[in-house]
Structure formats: C-alpha cells, structure tokens
Amino acid sequence: MSFNVAIDGPAGAGKSTIARAVAKKKGFIYVDTGAMYRAMALFMLREGVDPADAAAIADKCKEADITIQYVDGEQVVLLNGENVNAYLRTEEVGNMASTTSAQPAVRTKLVELQQALAAKSDVIMDGRDIGTVVLPHAQVKIYLTASSMVRAKRRYDELTAKGESCNLEKIRQDIEDRDYRDMHRETSPLKQAEDAVLVDTSDMTIEQVIDRIVALIG
C-alpha cells in the first residue's frame, strides 16, 4: 500500500519548498498540485479565455492534458506535451490560477490525475484541499501556515533578489485577498483538515520545518 502525505495551507506558506525537500529526504514522489493548476491557468491565458467565463473555462479544460514526469529527479510539468516549468511562477499565471482552480470542471479533471498518482506511489502532495478532498485518507496531514506579513516579506525578498521592483504592502494585500478567495470559494475551500497537524512557520527556519515534518512521518 502506498504512503501519502498531504500538506495544505495558504499561498506563500512555503508548501512547495518544504514538500519538495521532505520528499527528497524520504524518497517519496513530490506532486506539486499548484503547478498543475498553474499549467491549466497558463493554458487558459494562452487560449485567451475570460477568467470570469465559467462555461468557457469548463469547456476549454477538456483540451488540456497535464501530466507530471520526473527527469533526473526533477519534476517536469507537461502541458499537452510541452515542458512549461519556466512559465508557471509568474504573477499573471498565479492570479489566473486562483480564479480557474475554483471551477468544478477544472478541479475534477486534476483531482483524478492526482489520486491516480497517489494510489500507486508513495507521495507527498501540497495544495489547498489535499487533506480534505484529494487525499482524505492520507496517513499524515499537515496544515502549513505563516502570518500574511511574513509570507509577503518572503515573496518580496524573492522578487527583489531577481531584480524585480515590487511593493511589500501590495504583495501583502494580494496575499490576503487570495486567502479570502481560497477560503470562501464554493468548491473545496481552503481549510485545515480535522486530523491535520498545524505547523506555523512564521518563526521557523526551513530546516526546522523540514525536520518537524520528517519527524511526523516517522
């Protein structure tokens, strides 16, 4: 039987970074669900779909084939056969993903793929509704969070390190707006599963968070 670890939490909590590092330590497959939703959002942007047009999104998502492969230990997200890793982390794609991921048709399609991966492999998966919807029977569930200001500062540092000009307060506001959307959407809202362990990373180093989760897995 496969061993599944579910990590949920708001945007900017460090879920992907932590999940990837824990997967490497434990020898699990890391399934970046956020990257899959971002790939779908990228497809919608490329197709010129209006984010407010639910019917168009539901129709178009049938044309998107999104899969994950591992090349030399690195996760590669394929959108209709194209490696789109380089295009997934822009603000435009992130904002589109927050809108399109709330569409039931989009979620249904991607959840099926995620569950199929988890059924046959030891996986660590992160997202907004992994422990509550995608992997409700995961052996270990974690709700990873941090204050909105801490998350904004991390994002600010990340962007300025790349030479991008940005405003810390605007980033914080964007994060809080996204939190609200994610927690109040009708389909699979972001919430802590009843049996999930809360890990607040506001005052923790990455290494401390990794060690804590590895200890929980055992």
From TrEMBL:
Keyword Nucleotide-binding assigned to the entry: answer is yes
Specify the Cytidylate kinase domain's residue ranges: 5-217
Q: What is its EC number?
A: 2.7.4.25
InterPro entries, sorted: Cytidylate_kin, Cytidylate_kinase_dom, P-loop_NTPase
One GO MF term on file is:
ATP binding
Give residues annotated as binding ATP.
9-17
Report which reactions are catalysed by this protein: CMP + ATP = CDP + ADP; dCMP + ATP = dCDP + ADP
Gene Ontology CC terms, in alphabetical order: cytosol
Q: Which UniProt keywords apply?
A: ATP-binding, Cytoplasm, Kinase, Nucleotide-binding, Transferase
Question: What is the annotated localization of this protein?
Answer: Cytoplasm
Q: What class of enzyme is it?
A: transferase
Is this entry keyworded Kinase?
Answer: yes
Give the UniProt record's GO annotations in the biological process aspect.
nucleobase-containing small molecule interconversion; pyrimidine nucleotide metabolic process
Concerning PANTHER family, the annotation shows: CYTIDYLATE KINASE, CYTIDYLATE KINASE/PANTOATE-BETA-ALANINE LIGASE
Check the record and name the HAMAP family matching this protein.
Cytidyl_kinase_type1
What family does the Swiss-Prot or TrEMBL record give for this protein?
Belongs to the cytidylate kinase family. Type 1 subfamily.
Name it.
Cytidylate kinase
At the highest ranks, the source species' classification is: Bacteria, Bacillati, Bacillota, Clostridia, Lachnospirales
